[in-house]
Amino acid sequence: MMRSASSSGHSSDWSVAKRASSTRPDLSRRALVVAVSATLLGILVAVPLFRDTRPGAPFNQACAIAGTICLLMPAVFFFAKRGGAAKNPPLWFVLHAICGFMGIFLISIHVASVSALSPALVPLVALMFLVCQGFWVRAFLTRRLSFLFARSPKSFDFGTALPDNRAAIGAVIEQKTALLAMLDPQANEATFSPRLRHWLRAPLKALRYDLLARREAALVGARARAGFVLSYARQLHIAVAAIFYLSLLAHVVVMLFFAGYAAKGGEVYWWHIANWGSK
User: Which of 3, 9, 262, 266 is deepest in the core (most CB within 10 A)?
Assistant: First the structure.
């Protein structure tokens, strides 16, 4: 009864959200395909063109710096969204995607002449994975994303009888509601998910709420409908992004502050801040 009574409210909310989605900024599949094609074409032109240059040459290093700045945008989006500062998430996502394409193009100029395997290629490999995975999920699996949300009409049919485990679902919702009253009294249980401030202020409560939300999603079969790959695509994306940013930070620190070590006794021809590690 609880889900049936609330179904009209959730359906109306869904209708409002659907109407709003038609006017908010977004990247369609066609736009993403065009962006990926343009980026790939740019890389195919840039790599042969800059094949005989050096990664640390002034222009190549400038491209690396510009590319790094572009690639900071997804990280800013991540923290802004979880901190509640992203007032328009779709616009942030569009900027996230565009900066990702621009970043990988600029970095391709920087590494065009690199042919040997080295730890410096770790951020490049991670970046290639992130761009390819993000494009694939967004362009071809986006219709199944709604199944990951337990309250979506696509993942929970409000017009049919409630599942046999409705008592367990109701118990989980009651626990979430009680916990939310302590975690964030002004929030709506149907749409709430812990943000960065909740994890910082009350990490145990935020963890308990997150586990309850996952339990609810499992009970209504949201992840089962979405499929294994899509269900864990976000976690994998975040994990690889962490590897990318950590390896990128290490590369930048070594090249700018330990230039002598990076040169391995050779010429330090790129712009750097310190020459630590030189003999």
Answer: 262
